[in-house]
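[job 0412] stage=fold_complex status=start
inputs:
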Amino acid sequence: MPLVAYLGPRGTFTEQASRCLTDDFDAELVPFDAVSQALRAVRTGEVLAAAVPVENSVEGSVPATLDALSAGDPLVAVREAMLPIRFDVLVRPGTRDVRSVASHPHALGQVRGWLAEHLPGAEVRVSGSTAAAAAEVLAGEHDAAVTAPTAIEEYPSLVRLAEGIADLPDAVTRFLLLRRPGIPPEPTGADRTSIAAVIGDEVGALTELLAELSLRGINLSRIESRPTKDRLGEYRFFLDFDGHIADARIGDALSALHRRCSEVRFLGSYPKADRSPATVRPAASEQVFRHSAQWVDDLRAGAIG
Amino acid sequence: MPLVAYLGPRGTFTEQASRCLTDDFDAELVPFDAVSQALRAVRTGEVLAAAVPVENSVEGSVPATLDALSAGDPLVAVREAMLPIRFDVLVRPGTRDVRSVASHPHALGQVRGWLAEHLPGAEVRVSGSTAAAAAEVLAGEHDAAVTAPTAIEEYPSLVRLAEGIADLPDAVTRFLLLRRPGIPPEPTGADRTSIAAVIGDEVGALTELLAELSLRGINLSRIESRPTKDRLGEYRFFLDFDGHIADARIGDALSALHRRCSEVRFLGSYPKADRSPATVRPAASEQVFRHSAQWVDDLRAGAIG
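[job 0412] stage=fold_complex status=done
writing structure:
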């Protein structure tokens, strides 16, 4: 059975995401202590793939993932999952008075309002992960833990004091399943392509990069810059856009970025989690691309009209 | 011997240009009364090619040529010539007092300063062409004619009162040799490509069209709009830019314009008259284009890095 790495420990959101990302094949899930370690295990072949978080609609992107993706041997995303960020509050059976509540700082940040309203007297404590907080409640260190919905499966002797809580009910975390490069998944008509591109510190460089996409009718869904560690003033841009590398307009745009950028890394073409089909302008359709290339071939061969 | 049409009569600038444009093959030059007639003779196969003026650095472009190029069967330019605009003043031998001077209105417009200074008392009269003015001087209708330098060969019984005159000494007229479509001339590294493109009446349409060129490092040397006769608010743009359709960056840009424009007509790739080599940015070189296309092919096949 193929092994799939995830950011542990068991009972966290990333385990839940890794199950979701591997629901179409039999996989044994292996927890790792850090995203960089999980990705290293993919690169060495120790595991087939890794499920990692890339961005969170409350906390923003996950720098550890971006950095681990842009350094080292190339890896590509083959699947995407969006997990709603909803938490449970677990306690020992019979707990009446909650005087302390623990969790990972990110989780605490996303239920601050709920805690203030429902457990106003409780002391808020920091744990290493949501699952670790549950283990600590079980050991009697705290009265309650804010956890992922899956935690109850790991700690069945705890009970839910509350479930599905979140200050922002629509918040989601986005996860990717990463593998060593290979033939990308088949296009589905509702795909996303991710790249990391380095451009120099020149006037207009980013505008021109974005124009390469917009002129080909490509819809950008995310852009984020991080300074490269190599040179001051040089930035690496993480871009997500609608479409699949097999699409003519996407391949054409990637070629253009490869010419333009001092470095460009393909991070995969994969089905979008929400399955929303790409809107392709008529002038950017496969047929129009094929027709335009044929027109130039004909002109070069002296066959016009 | 192949026939080459030109805008007559004999002894004008266009005859001079047509000789220049056909100096690499034996051609019999045939004068036509109008550019449209000369181009029609190419389209029907009556003649092999036509030498026509397209623009003049004093008078601007030649609408008759642009219109005749954009309607009817496609024609393509295969050679370009730039003729300095210099005039002679011809008189009958023994003429002392010049009381009248005649020429084509365009010619008169370009020597107005010279006439005011050197023949201030002469009456200025309009003829149908510079050559016609010479014929009329020979017939005694006027005292002097402002003519092309070649006119003296047609009217050897006249003599030069002045030669090489022009108010603007650097003015030139640009001519093209047009043929029915065929394999374009070999690239020389100093080529020009001409097109006519129709874009709709939409915000940003022209900016985006120009961006398709600039993003590929293509240097525009001329742009001119003319309303199409079909629809109000719709324009046809005549564009000249450095490079040859055989160049990767030019073929790529033409494909993009074909996708974008409601109509685009290739008007030829041909050596520039001034032989100034195109400046190609490193990111737009043949090798970089080949390499970027190969990169995308490799990614699609799952072979990265």
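[job 0412] summary: The two ends of chain A are 59 Å apart (CA to CA).
[job 0412] exit 0
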